[in-house]
Design brief:
about 190 residues; five-stranded antiparallel sheet; disordered N terminus
Length: about 190
């Protein structure tokens, strides 16, 4: 057999182990050479001489240098499958992976459910964060208003005390200062 067939036979077990570790939804893997001959297969050892799959539409796309991903027929059985192809470097080989639609759908459904749960959790975290920021902002605004009110009270008190210190014997300037500051503190337009 050609050298590339020996390599494919030697590596078949490693390829199988690696692919099985990736997903349970892989039905089969076909490796074809540059002429479209089946040189390795996950589900069974390749036949000697290698089967000619060059007439298969998916294999023909690979031989033209075009990849494929979608629904089609398994290159050896013709069974409807989900397929993906890829070239193998400079060797001219092409790998065709077939998958069971039901198993792949179950994996997709599980991934979507996990993604929905993550989105829900993230939305909840963002909502809680927004509430906490809003509460902190409200508390800060309330503290600021309280500080401004206290400052206004202190300013009014200081103005009255200055009036008392400036006119210790005259009550009229003190009463005027009290009335003006009371009006300003209460927001009245005129005294």
């Amino acid at each position: 057999p050609p050298n590339n067939v020996l390599v494919a036979l030697f590596r078949h077990g490693a390829i199988e182990d690696w692919l099985r570790s990736l997903t349970d939804s892989v039905s089969d893997v076909h490796v074809v050479d540059e002429r479209g001959r089946l040189i390795a297969r996950l589900s069974s050892p390749p036949a000697a001489p290698p089967a000619d799959l060059s007439a298969d539409a998916i294999v023909a796309l690979g031989l033209k240098g075009q990849g494929f991903a979608g629904e089609g027929g398994d290159p050896t059985t013709g069974a409807p499958s989900l397929l993906a192809t890829s070239a193998v470097g400079d060797l001219g080989w092409h790998v065709i992976v077939t998958g069971r639609r039901d198993a792949l759908q179950a994996e997709v459904d599980q991934a979507l459910a996990q993604q929905r749960a993550l989105r829900l959790g993230l939305s909840a975290a963002l909502l809680i964060g927004a509430v906490l920021v809003g509460a902190a902002g409200s508390a800060a605004l309330r503290r600021r208003r309280e500080a401004v009110s206290a400052l206004e009270q202190q300013t009014a008190t200081a103005a009255v005390l200055r009036a008392i210190a400036a006119s210790p014997t005259n009550v009229d300037p003190v009463l005027d200062a009290i009335a003006e500051n009371a009006a300003r503190f209460c927001g009245a337009a005129d005294v």
